[in-house]
Design a protein that fits this description.
Number of strands of chain B: 0
Radius of gyration of chain A: 20 Å
Largest sheet of chain A: none
Radius of gyration of chain B: 18 Å
Shape of chain A: globular
Strand content of chain B: under 5%
Helix content of chain B: over 70%
Structural class of chain B: mainly alpha
Distance between the termini of chain B: 25 Å
Strand content of chain A: under 5%
Shape of chain B: globular
Number of domains of chain B: 1
Distance between the termini of chain A: 23 Å
Oligomer: heterodimer
Number of strands of chain A: 0
Order of helices and strands of chain A: HHHHHHHH
Largest sheet of chain B: none
Structural class of chain A: mainly alpha
Number of helices of chain B: 9
Chain lengths: 247, 227
């Protein structure tokens, strides 16, 4: 068990592992997406208050969840890379950043698309939208720092510290924004509570959530593979692999 | 290393930074002038109408304070990084977070403290009611150290880069948002004659958190930047 993890820490084994896993993950992503979208867009009943436009939550909510989840993944990977100096952890952290930013943008865009028919405006300084926007800024800062430092190891470590600082700050930012919001304006639209959600709506949502997770895993492995190719281009195992001979 | 020599080193760092800062006075003055100019741009851009300015004052002053601090942040480590004294500090037997804290305190004394002294004047310019002045001073007193502390992490991360300035603001400004929210809200609340205890406790809590954690993160970031 442990030796398996230790082997994963080496780029060479990780590369092989990712190679084997990506097709499986890719196909299951596609299948869960199709099932989730079918259930969400066609099977799930129309909301009696919001009509058909509520269906955007099947994209919006998983994207918003993922945007936070990916930041935590990034910070944990960064911390592991910082403490145990594991190359793969650095690679995971740096590969996850653009994906997280993309999820955040997706959550923001779908949020404002939903806001147009519901609230009548594209943007509202709603607590969740605002903290999502700030999360996007944190992601962009991470990516900017990463691209500004040329040396990859230094960049990875500096970004790891930034991610850890961000993880400490995200709850503070989130709650201060929530607090700010309740003081400045009452909730414009009380969103339907999670617990009050009907099962027929919840199941597609959970399916979509799984699909997003799988999509993240697939693209993360693909990006990590590219990153390994770039970093390890001078190594013998890479040359051997590309030339087609085993070992 | 005895305890007394550590506190000596700590005080020596503060003294050294203060002396250096006082010898280049224009570097202290520039962010302050910037602070005043930013605030005086708002009446010109929005409207000189006193009712509007009064409601905007807390936010405007705090955003300007944020930007002025941003501008002065670079001076915490930049020159020491360029002449190599930062490396000497890292090599010294004293724990780096303590020395870093000394540098941050010195930075706050030359950049944060003058902001606090100047702020009431700007409050008057923006028609902030007089009874909100104590709140303005209190939030600045609690908030600007947080800005220096959190900002030092950003500077430590970008100090090795040639054009770190814009990047620094990209990294640090999102982290300043909680301070901005609580501070400007406290002033606005106090202007409406309501209690601001809650906001001040929050600011104090953020200060305590930043005081304990930021020097550690900054020291770690410096080690990476100087590698």
């Amino acid at each position: 068990m442990w030796s398996f993890f230790h082997r994963l820490a080496s780029p060479k084994h990780f590369y092989r592992f990712a190679d084997r896993l990506i097709p499986w993950l890719g196909w299951s992503t596609l299948i869960t997406f199709i099932i989730g979208l079918y259930l969400g867009l066609i099977v799930a009943p129309t909301d009696y208050q919001q009509g058909e436009s509520y269906r955007i939550i099947y994209i919006h909510v998983p994207a918003a969840w993922m945007s936070m989840f990916v930041y935590v993944v990034m910070a944990i990977a960064g911390g592991i890379g910082l403490i145990w100096k594991m190359k793969m952890a650095d690679i995971i952290a740096s590969s996850a950043a653009p994906l997280g930013a993309a999820f955040t943008i997706l959550a923001l865009v779908t949020g404002s698309l939903w806001g147009k028919p519901m609230w009548g405006t594209w943007w509202i300084w709603d607590a969740r939208l605002t903290s999502e926007l700030i999360l996007l800024f944190l992601y962009l800062g991470f990516i900017a720092l990463q691209s500004a430092i040329e040396d990859r190891r230094t960049a990875a470590n500096a970004c790891a510290i930034l991610a850890l600082v961000g993880v400490v700050n995200i709850p503070i930012i989130h709650y201060s924004v929530e607090w700010w919001n309740t003081l400045h304006q009452g909730p414009t639209v009380t969103r339907f509570g999670k617990s009050a959600m009907a099962t027929s709506m919840l199941i597609p949502l959970l399916t979509m959530f799984l699909a997003f997770k799988l999509y993240f895993a697939t693209t993360l492995l693909m990006r990590a593979r590219v990153e390994i190719l770039e970093r390890e281009r001078d190594t013998t195992w890479m040359k051997n692999m590309i030339m087609g001979s085993d070992e | 290393m005895t305890n007394s020599s550590l506190s000596k080193a700590f005080i020596a760092v503060i003294k050294r930074d203060l002396t250096l800062a006082l010898r280049t006075r224009s570097e202290i003055a520039n962010p302050l002038i910037f602070f005043v100019i930013i605030v005086s741009l708002f009446p010109l851009a929005v409207s000189p109408e006193s009712g509007l300015l009064k409601t905007m004052a807390p936010g405007v002053i705090w955003v300007a304070a944020l930007l002025a601090t941003m501008l002065s942040l670079d001076s915490i480590f930049r020159s020491d990084f360029e002449d190599g004294s930062l490396e000497q500090m890292l090599l010294s037997p004293h724990p780096m977070p303590v020395l870093v804290l000394g540098k941050i305190i010195a930075h706050w004394l030359v950049s944060g403290l003058p902001l606090i002294i100047l702020a009431p004047l700007l409050g008057v310019l923006l028609f902030l009611p007089y009874h909100a002045m104590p709140a303005l001073l209190a939030t600045l007193a609690l908030g600007t150290p947080v800005l220096s502390l959190v900002g030092s992490i950003g500077v430590a991360l970008t100090v090795g880069l040639h054009r770190g300035g814009v990047l620094l603001s990209l990294l640090v400004l999102p982290l300043y948002i909680p301070v901005l929210i609580f501070a400007s809200n406290a002033i606005a609340t106090s202007a409406a004659d309501l209690s601001i205890k809650g906001q001040l406790y929050f600011l104090a809590a953020m200060f305590a958190l930043a005081l304990t954690l930021a020097p550690l993160a900054t020291a770690a970031a410096l080690r990476i930047s100087l590698r």
